[in-house]
Amino acid sequence: MKKLQFGWMFKVWQIPDHSLIRPLSDPIVVLEGHSKRVGIVSWHPTARNILLTAGSDNLIIIWNVGTGEPLISMDDHPDLIYSVSWNRNGSLFCTTCKDRRLRVCDPRKREVVAERLAPHEGIRPMRAIFIRDGNIFTTGFTRMSQRELGLWDPTNFEEPIALLELDTSNGVLLPYYDADANMVYLCGKGDSSVRYFEVTEEPPYVHYLSTFSSKEPQRGMGFMPKRGVDVTKCEIARLYKLLDKKCEPITMTVPRKSDLFQDDLYPDTAGPDPAMEPEEWLDGRDEDPILISMREGYLPPKSRELKVAKKNVLDRPTTRRSMSTLDTNSLPPQLLERLLEEIQNLKATVLSQEKRIGDLENKLSQYTNGTA
Asked: Coiled-coil annotation: which residues (predicted)?
């Protein structure tokens, strides 16, 4: 992002699918609209090119990146916005704010449709994410500065579905959600551990599963989409831990002895293709993500290993065909002519190399017999 005379702009870059073949020097689009620094960016989960940004100017802008135009602007937040999270189909998003309110917003109506004051009684920053069933998972602090997590029904904010105290650490808990497994990973700034929970429909609704611990504290954390995990190793999640001088991958795996594809671990997951165009979403259409199977990209470990096995040459199938038996009628004349020319050149090269090898063998035999 770069500061202008009257505001801030930020740029969107496109990274090639396979690899970088040259330095990226030009963004695909430059967006201008915020008067202060932008701290939050979030892509719409199902509509093409829809991007939400929130800045220190307490303003939320929704853009059509394909045209570089702002579509919706909302100024309902009187203070700094801590977090923004879309629901599964992108019809709503929830926010947490420095004014200690949790809000649910309908962007196309440009209004706040539900809000809760102080879902966590502490004054320190909160975070909130929509989960698969439409409920909202929050992290925050109690009045005594204990870290706390909560589960809320946005249609009834009076009482939480679940409220659980964790510990007395000072780091803000950052939640990362896996919609396929209905699991939440909690990573605290300055912590050296990652705790994960499962959200269910039965009490106590939020179930502690386990903790991953390491030696160095994290400065931040990133979460990779499910379609990037290695299903051959029963990997269900991969996080990227930001340290002072490096980024370290953390893999979460389920121990299984079988090499077969594990259907229960990998239900169909959200794919990369959008379910609708920007204009359709803006007109009021809602679509769930387009799901893809994880099985399609699966290769058993044995088939990926290179193994050399000596076989009896007599066992080879006799399916070779000579050039004269090929169906040359299906080839374009120019291509056929070029192929025949290349074959002639290859034959001439082979003959010249055979002659050269014969000359070298004669000279070698003369040296060996002492005649030279």
From this structure: 336-363
